[in-house]
Amino acid sequence: MNILSRHLPILEWGRTYDRTVLSNDLMAAVIVTIMLIPQSLAYALLAGLPPVVGLYASILPLVFYAIFGTSRTLAVGPVAVVSLMTASAAGAVADQGTAQYLEAAITLAALSGIMLAILGLLRAGFLANLLSHPVISGFITASGILIATSQLKHILGVQAGGDNWPDMLASLASAIVDTNPWTLAVGIPATLFLFWVRKGAKPALQVIGLPKRAAEMTAKAGPVAAVALTILAVLAFDLDGRGVNLVGAIPQGLPPFAVPSTDLSLIEKLWVPALLISIIGFVESVSVAQTLAAKRRQRITPDQELIGLGAANIASAFSGGYPVTGGFARSAVNFDAGAQTPAAGAYTAIGIALATLFLTPLLFSLPVATLAATIIVAVLSLVDLKTPGRLWRYSKADFAAHAATIGITLWAGVELGVIAGVAVGLLLYLWRASRPHAAIVGRVPETEHFRNVDRHRVFTVPHVLSIRIDESLTYLNARWLEEYVLERVAERPKLRHVILMCSAVNEIDASGLESLEAINHRLADGNIGLHLSEVKGPVTDRLKRTHFLDDLHGRIYLSQDRAFVELAKDDGLDTAPIDDLARGMI
Amino acid sequence: MNILSRHLPILEWGRTYDRTVLSNDLMAAVIVTIMLIPQSLAYALLAGLPPVVGLYASILPLVFYAIFGTSRTLAVGPVAVVSLMTASAAGAVADQGTAQYLEAAITLAALSGIMLAILGLLRAGFLANLLSHPVISGFITASGILIATSQLKHILGVQAGGDNWPDMLASLASAIVDTNPWTLAVGIPATLFLFWVRKGAKPALQVIGLPKRAAEMTAKAGPVAAVALTILAVLAFDLDGRGVNLVGAIPQGLPPFAVPSTDLSLIEKLWVPALLISIIGFVESVSVAQTLAAKRRQRITPDQELIGLGAANIASAFSGGYPVTGGFARSAVNFDAGAQTPAAGAYTAIGIALATLFLTPLLFSLPVATLAATIIVAVLSLVDLKTPGRLWRYSKADFAAHAATIGITLWAGVELGVIAGVAVGLLLYLWRASRPHAAIVGRVPETEHFRNVDRHRVFTVPHVLSIRIDESLTYLNARWLEEYVLERVAERPKLRHVILMCSAVNEIDASGLESLEAINHRLADGNIGLHLSEVKGPVTDRLKRTHFLDDLHGRIYLSQDRAFVELAKDDGLDTAPIDDLARGMI
């Protein structure tokens, strides 16, 4: 594959594009468009931006992802968690509703797009590995709780604030006396309706005679129905005059040409959140894309995905949008509706553009409470209460990373939450890596196998110590290795030979080598030999480029068994206890 | 061992203290005291502090290390690299010679002491592992170059500055025209004499009849001879009047009671350098202590060493000193001179205290150039020019970390240098950990061994794929595992069974488990079985606590051979090619 077609996947699928594919893609695009309109408005609200910004972020980014992305079915656009992170980052530099706030959001999209594209060109997708599953799921659960809580004020029709969960709850509690009953009368039914749509709509539609697939697709239009019904309710009962907060005028027309800020002091404040938005967005998007690709035995290329998402975010910035990424729900709908190529995303973009041109006047009377209900129902499905217990039972370290992420995200916000999760995960990993597993092994009678002396009945001799090291020797455990070996040696006064069984040693870095050299010198001082057995080919090749093998006060054996049998005979006694030895070795 | 004697090693060795040990310790203390006086003055100069501060830092810290430390022979006090780091950190908040500068140095000692003690109580000594050997040696080489360069101005008798190497060289180059010839006439011979003392003094003293050991010990007093000779030269030739910079009046008397600053804005600026000083100091000290302990088959406890060094630094802060740690040269002298317990350190402290009380007037006429010569000769031995080439040949990744540390330390200073070294080392480690080694294996004919198909002539069948994974399954490589397995499967349309050979898998964390589950589901969709072989006991125990084994579309086999033999028979054909199979399996 040449460089052009690696970075432009459209050249691949574009060649075989025919009428069948076109009609499948068009069908999926119609369904996703219907789903995406209320979602875009709602997530813009969550990000603290004018609703139309959500629509802008759902037009050009989709086209650019279609050109550069490798997933055939990923649907890109505003998503809940990234919207929350945008609100947090932009809120730190400007007040909601100001031009500076909008500029910060646009700049975040630009920075995030540039970072993603650079990471992609550097093939640095592996950085996303720093987010372990427990950290990601903890972060998503905590974000879901934060988002749902932040939307309650719209359901109640009150003013409330707070950047973290305790503040939000306190602010809500003190504002609850001002609850607007008319807003509540819209918000509660809308929320209940949307919850029902998620679970109950499909079976109900099948009962009234729709085929299964049609029922499934129709149910996805639930939010649109909620939008339409609540608009009608506003008009019918004059809710505008009764204090119900409405979306109001949305500017009509195609996205404007916007320019991100080049103010260095603003960029200095936004680059860390932009990096976190990039990584969280990338991880979410890649997980979705991989899951869907695997179902059709297709493949995605993570490094090229970085470039696709980077292009989408840069496009978002220049068309007045805010950070976007691949969303789970809408991608699944796109997939189920039969989308076959990224062109479906481009058609969706046309659908949203048409809505921006012609539909926005109809949304004037849409209650904000309806959008809040959409968000609450969407994010509560992200809250996963089973994972903590499962992790606790399986791995305390993973539980610690998960719990730290949830706790710090709720109490100190999304940015510190992610950073703390990564830091805790990494520290626990490094802690374990710094004290790896090793075992003293002996020979299983009547075999050539060597097993842990603590777990099996095996044969050993007092003047030979066989240590199996179950990890590569790197700088993280080099110090441990010295301590471990020398302590074991100190316990055994009769010792003449130490064999390090290296069957699980895939690498010895420079620090590991220095530790081996130190062990060799110290053992040599006590006239004890150091031998290595079962060293892998690539490891031996590298050791041969050093002085270590010349200085080694001992030998390298191909097999542990050979080493043990040969060294066991050298017990320093004149009369070798051949019989004993032979008995153990049969 | 109870908690008291674990944290107070003095209780251990104090019980067996007798007259022989006392006389050995006293002898060592005398020699170390003679060596330490010029060193303390010189390193205080390097740290930009009044010379007496170096003496203060060599009294109480030694006593507190003797109580809390675990090394029998470590000699604590001011050292070159930590002095340089102190100068860099204190210089960032105040000008040299001001009370604020001294306060910053004292506060650094207090912060560093508290951090070391806390790390010790948390048993977080493993954090020092983050500094790999290539990073440490790169840092020490670059520090040696920086320190030697910073002292050249004292040899030349000029004013020069600069925080990094290019600035230092530029500043020296423009100041060289002001060179004071009388200072040079002291500095050059002092430097040459001290270089000669290092190499040539011992043989020369033996030639004139001293026994080997006495010659060795007398040679260590070389710096004292340089001090005495240059003081005499100053007095004889009235060098004071000729512009030679002298140490001048040193306050007489015991260390004052000092109080570190509790100003939060100062602490905010100093905590990062204090942490770096703590870690670098700890690593240097522990390496020295371990090397010496091993020579006498003694042991040190790294976590208790943290507490010992923490106590020493807190004591330094409260007695007007600056950050201290265990030094290599003086510990080796202490060891060679026969020190047997930490009490030798306490006797050294008494020696230095006596010097502070009575000797300081004699040092009035000591040229600063002599101290600079002491420093230059001491640190140039730290510069290691062989390591870069050795690392380049052995491991490009280790070379990269080494080179980055040297380059960034020289060009951006000691703090950024250490941070960059740790970051580069960690990123390279994580990068490798995220794409571990794995191999497709086949059966070596006439054995039960399975080896890499690319390296050996082995037997395989097209409907069974055996993959040996040479690493624990953790979140860093979970994504890689999914990609690797699914790609290999996609290449093999006839496949019916995948066996993951887990002989090198020491751990499966929650992310690794999720990836195994995902692989299992995707293979099951394609009607391919997933089997594990040679799973270690502890790993199996943990897997049993999950649903994974119930959901597994396959089996766990104790041995890879058993798995292969059994699954190879299930090729989905009515007539099994038993003959072929049998041939490969003989």
TrEMBL record, chains A, B:
Pfam family name, one: Sulfate_transp
Coiled-coil annotated residue ranges, if any: none
Intracellular or extracellular location(s): Membrane
Ranges where the STAS domain occurs: 454-567
An example Gene Ontology biological process: transmembrane transport
Main location: membrane
Record's bilayer topology term: Multi-pass membrane protein
Keywords carried by this UniProt record: Membrane, Transmembrane, Transmembrane helix
Transmembrane segments: 21-37, 43-67, 74-94, 100-122, 134-152, 172-197, 218-237, 270-294, 306-325, 337-359, 366-383, 403-431
Any single Gene Ontology cellular-component annotation: membrane
Recorded superkingdom: Bacteria
PROSITE patterns with a match to the protein in the record: STAS (PS50801)
InterPro entries reported for this sequence: SLC26A/SulP_dom, SLC26A/SulP_fam, STAS_dom, STAS_dom_sf
Gene3D superfamilies in alphabetical order: STAS domain (3.30.750.24)
PANTHER family from the UniProt entry: SULFATE TRANSPORTER
Protein name in the entry: Sulfate permease
Gene behind this protein: sulP
